[in-house]
Specification:
The protein is an alpha/beta fold and 223 residues long. It is 40% helix and 22% strand. The protein contains 7 helices and 10 strands. The strands form 3 sheets. The protein has a 6-stranded mixed sheet with strand order 5-4-3-6-7-8, sandwiched between helices. The chain has a two-stranded antiparallel sheet with strand order 1-2. Strands 9-10 form a two-stranded antiparallel sheet. Helix 2 crosses helix 3. The longest helix has 19 residues. The protein starts with a helix and ends with a helix.
């Protein structure tokens, strides 16, 4: 496992973005863990989060892209912090852009904020998680009305490795239907393997017992 992945897992638990317990998900499933990247609300933590996204992008896609697109709302801060890290940490100066959910009726009425997409732009989509992939299809549909772009990939924080309600692998479903790769900084399998019974700053965040609950959950809902 690459060092940045290990650092990211520790970053998640130290900031309580990854918690273990008993959680009811939007899908209605009872999950033994929960991921919430919305907790990164300071300059330090959001800049660190941008570094992890930038590390994934640099490692998987190199420099052959032009734009980081973050769908509103959570994708907005992710797109901005990621392009800052790409410049500061990897010397890659890339554009960012994101969409408005509501069209302004005064001043700048454009649908996008940041770079104005043009034909031929190579785009990487960025978001926090994937559930059923519906919002990603909507994002691509929106972009396609604005310019004839080339999609390089989609990146998210964590792959839960779960089936959707209709039994599909959400990542593979997007790849098959839209024709570009989907990558996560880490998978839940990598988290379990790295974190189980590991002491970080004097604390064990994932006990063997809780890891067994996660394995049971994945056996029922995993891909």
């Amino acid at each position: 496992m690459q060092p940045y992945k290990q650092q990211f897992i520790e970053f998640l638990v130290q900031n309580q973005a990854l918690q273990f317990g008993d959680f009811t998900l939007k899908s209605g499933r009872q999950s033994p863990y929960f991921i919430n990247t919305g907790v990164f609300e300071t300059g330090e933590t959001i800049s660190q989060l941008g570094y992890f996204y930038a590390s994934l992008i640099h490692g998987e896609f190199g420099d052959d892209f032009d734009v980081i697109f973050g769908p509103a709302y959570k994708g907005i801060s992710l797109a901005v912090t990621t392009v800052i890290s790409l410049q500061n940490d990897f010397k890659l100066d890339k554009y960012y852009t994101f969409n408005r959910k509501e069209i302004k009726e005064h001043g700048d009425k454009k649908l996008l904020v940041g770079h104005t997409l043009k034909d031929g732009d190579k785009i990487i989509l960025i978001d926090d998680v994937i559930t059923d992939g519906a919002t990603k299809f909507e994002t691509v549909e929106l972009i396609n009305t604005l310019a004839k772009v080339e999609y390089i990939g989609l990146v998210v924080a964590v792959n839960r490795l779960e089936k959707t309600a209709d039994g599909l692998d959400a990542f593979k479903n997007i790849e098959d239907k839209l024709g570009f790769p989907v990558k996560a900084i880490v998978t839940i399998r990598e988290i379990i393997d790295y974190l189980t019974d590991k002491e970080i700053d004097g604390q064990v965040y994932l006990t063997k017992e809780k890891a067994q609950e996660m394995e049971k959950y994945l056996k029922e809902y995993g891909i």
